[in-house]
UniProtKB/TrEMBL annotation:
Its EC number is 5.1.3.15. The keyword ATP-binding does not apply. Substrate binds at residues 57, 81, 86. The active site is at 159, 264. This is Glucose-6-phosphate 1-epimerase. Catalyzes the interconversion between the alpha and beta anomers from at least three hexose 6-phosphate sugars (Glc6P, Gal6P, and Man6P). GO terms for cellular component: cytoplasm. It catalyses: alpha-D-glucose 6-phosphate = beta-D-glucose 6-phosphate. Keywords: Isomerase. GO terms for biological process: carbohydrate metabolic process.
Length: 297
């Protein structure tokens, strides 16, 4: 059987390689482990709670309908940081394809966390599709606006925690020349650094990055992770470093910041305004595809 389902989670195993698998917690439809030929690709805090009492610290939490803490929209600003998708238990919809094995999860207002739908009363239908390739993991989202009269205003983001060996000799490439919003400096500017290196807390939104710019996490000249995007215009790169990690109770061990970097494809620098009856689609594809040199502006 390539699918194992329990009350809390679903494990999908690749039919051609028992050591390639993905594990998804129904709470948040959070991918919290992805092993490629036995090697874990995602970072998960050893203090992460997997009992549905809080969002998972690690893996791929889903951010919807708002990224961060909104302070402008009268409805969205009532929601907690990063919205309600990561704090709601999704429905497992089953398998849609045998090879590469593909499964789906769904969330809508009637089953989402009631504490949150009280705060943000919009109707929505989400379908998350997870496709486990022999050498990639694709997570795709469809957001449907079921209303016949009102627009649905939202952000989407895959908050992907990538596992790395050592942040100090890891670089993130192909984001040079982008307009950025630096959440630590609270400034917006053009980032001219040819690559991103880490010497402290890094919390930057790279805005309106063409989908054909493939973001890569590189160590010693080799691609450790390759992140492709479909219809996701922004990329957030985050490492909390020492002080910020100390302030997060579920971030363990405290030295864990050395072994993770978040590369988060999303649509967060402005809101999507989805017309009644319409569907918006986007995806991220994680792999270790060969290094691809791209023009630097
Ligand atoms: O602690 P959380 O709510 O999970 O947020 C974790 C992080 O998410 C994103 O990367 C944001 O850019 C950061 O500002 C935030 O600290």
């Amino acid at each position: 059987m390539s699918i194992q389902e329990t009350d809390a989670k679903v494990i999908l195993t690749h039919p051609d390689n028992q050591n390639t698998s993905v594990t998804i917690l129904k709470y948040g439809a959070t991918v919290y482990s992805w092993k490629m030929d036995g090697e874990e690709q995602l970072w998960l805090s050893t203090g992460a709670l997997l009992d549905g009492s809080k969002p998972v610290r690690g893996g791929i939490p889903l951010v919807f309908p708002v990224f961060g803490k909104d302070e402008t929209d009268p409805q969205l600003s009532k929601l907690p940081q990063h919205g309600l998708a990561r704090n709601s238990t999704w429905e497992f919809l089953g398998q849609t394809k045998a090879n590469p094995p593909t499964i789906q999860f769904g969330l809508n207002k009637s089953i989402a966390n009631p504490e949150m739908t009280k705060l943000w009363p919009e109707e929505f239908n989400l379908i998350l599709t997870i496709e486990l390739g022999a050498e990639f993991l694709k997570t795709a989202i469809e957001v449907e606006n079921p209303s016949s009269f009102s627009f649905l205003k939202f952000n989407w983001l895959f908050h992907t925690y990538l596992k790395i060996a050592d942040i100090e000799d890891t670089m993130v490439s192909n984001l040079a020349g982008m307009k950025v919003h630096d959440k630590v400096l609270k400034e917006t500017f053009i980032d001219k650094h040819p690559v991103i290196q880490f010497q402290g807390e890094h919390d930057v939104v790279y805005e309106k990055v063409d989908d054909d710019r493939v973001v890569q996490v590189v160590r010693h000249g080799k691609p450790v992770h390759t992140v492709k995007r479909e219809n996701l215009q922004d990329v957030v790169v985050w490492n909390p470093w020492i002080e910020k990690s100390k302030g997060m109770g579920d971030f363990q061990p405290k030295s864990g910041y050395k072994e993770m970097v978040c590369v988060e494809p999303g649509h967060v620098s402005d809101f999507i305004d989805l017309a009644p009856g319409k569907v918006w689609k986007a995806a991220q594809i994680l792999s270790k595809d060969a290094l691809k040199y791209q023009a630097i502006q």
